[in-house]
Design a protein that fits this description.
By secondary structure, the protein is of the alpha/beta class. It is built from 16 helices and 19 strands. Strand 7, helix 8 and strand 8 form a beta-alpha-beta unit.
């Protein structure tokens, strides 16, 4: 296996299940590899807002001069996007030695361990980070928390963003069950930032049960703001000497709004500042680094607006909670004569409420197949979508891939219209080349 593509194809063949929750196999191989991240580690779990939180942490800590490593998943276009070192996407060649080390450990002593694609690639990326001489590692938890492969690492600080219904077949049927799984990334005596305004009680209970240092939105930190700027206030962290700082507060004022669009980003930013405050003795940052980081942060596919005629909006909203936020953000954009939507999703998603929540905003739907067996077909999406449409809306067609759907939307759209591409990462990634919208490179001509 000489290329990254060879290794990824190998990973896809190893395990009978695409998703197989549990840490026993991945922990066995990690112990054989005996790698460690010799720097502070921040893990980020939640239903939505994980990628944005990781990007803000990376931007602020980078502005403060730290050598950052960020692992996120899934990717939009290229696998290498899953690992950024010092703000740059890792090269494919840099990953190859780590894939080889995972394989060597996996098959050591003639006792091969079966790893899923996600488990194998996670170990390879963690190994690559361990070799990179980092000052801080930021790890997005892929699914759940307690049994996710990332949880083999003991984090110095955990962030839990929003908690809502997603992956209910794996994580449980309600927010309490899902919250219990997310809470599995907490560690005794270490800070956990819970930025969900109304977290499940299971999250709070688990923090007390294990003795984690709980930072809760609305109690331990909060934000305020107007149309021009915002401010953050939170409790100060206890010192390394064990001093109790519960009565002290820390403030940041006159902050510009994060460069990432969407009303929900302020909540994500508040959680990020709480994490940085909790870790300030090990990772001190200045107020100027915070201002610069928030002003410069970028993340493709999160309410990403591409100016032009028509306007193009890209968003990887793929569950009802995220789609509700997308609908609110679209409504705040103002008036457009017609909104066209390119949509594709995984078959296991709760598609009915997703379509119902965006239905009042969209006039024409372009439904697409996706290049994975897990995806719902465009025809099945049409059967679900048709009864939910308001009288003024219509299904413009079904398409073999997202780019074909986007071309059809571009051909039909007027200059003053907007086109929203949303749903799976495959949907948004299908209209991108190296992070740049294909349509943008073609001047939005079909």
């Amino acid at each position: 296996m000489n290329t990254l593509s060879d290794w990824l194809a190998h990973c896809e063949r190893l395990h009978p299940q695409i998703i197989d929750m549990g840490l026993e196999r991945v922990r066995t191989v990690a112990q054989r590899m005996d790698f460690r991240l010799d720097c502070p580690v921040i893990t980020v779990a939640g239903t939505n807002g994980k990628g944005s939180s990781c990007a803000m942490l990376e931007a602020i800590l980078g502005e403060a001069g730290y050598r950052t490593g960020v692992y996120t998943s899934p990717h939009l276009v290229h696998f290498e996007e899953r690992l950024r070192l010092r703000g740059e996407v890792v090269s494919a060649d840099a990953l190859l030695p780590s894939f080889a080390r995972v394989e060597q450990a996996r098959t050591a002593d003639g006792e091969a361990v079966s790893l899923s694609y996600f488990e194998f690639t996670t170990l390879a990326i963690l190994d690559c980070m361990a070799q990179a001489g980092l000052d801080v590692a930021i790890l997005e938890v892929g699914l759940g928390g307690r049994l996710d492969a990332v949880n083999v690492i003991d984090a110095d600080c955990a962030i839990i963003t929003s908690i809502d219904l997603d992956h209910v077949d794996l994580l449980g049927p309600d927010r309490e069950s899902i919250g219990r799984e997310k809470a599995g990334i907490m560690r005794t005596g270490r800070p956990v930032i819970v930025s969900d305004p109304v977290p499940p009680q299971s999250v709070i209970d688990h923090a007390f049960e294990i003795g984690a240092d709980l930072w809760r939105f609305g109690r331990d930190f909060n934000y305020s703001g107007d149309k021009q700027q915002w401010a953050w206030r939170g409790r100060a962290a206890a010192s390394a000497a064990g001093d109790d700082a519960a009565g002290d507060t820390r403030r940041y004022s006159g902050l510009a709004y994060p460069a990432l669009r969407g009303a929900n980003q302020l909540l994500n930013a508040a959680g990020v500042l709480a994490a940085l405050t909790a870790l300030r003795e090990r990772l001190p940052v200045t107020a100027q680094a915070i201002r610069n980081g928030l002003a410069l942060v970028t993340l493709p596919g999160r309410f990403q607006i591409i100016a032009g005629q028509p306007v193009l909006v890209l968003d990887v909203a793929h569950n009802p909670h995220a789609v509700a936020a997308l609908a609110a953000n679209l409504d705040a954009m103002g008036y457009y004569p017609c909104t066209h939507a390119v949509f594709g999703a995984m078959a296991d998603k709760d598609i009915v409420p997703m379509l119902a929540r965006l239905g009042p905003v969209v006039d024409r739907w372009y439904l697409t197949d996706l290049p994975t067996p897990r995806a719902a077909t465009a025809q099945s999406l049409q059967a679900v979508c048709q009864p939910l449409l308001p009288a003024r809306a219509e299904i413009a067609g079904t398409f073999a891939d997202p780019m074909q759907a986007l071309r059809a939307a571009l051909a039909a759209a007027g200059a003053a219209d907007r086109i929203v591409v949303f749903g799976s990462f495959f949907t948004v990634g299908g209209v991108l080349i190296d992070g740049v919208p294909r349509a943008q490179a073609q001047h939005l001509n079909p």
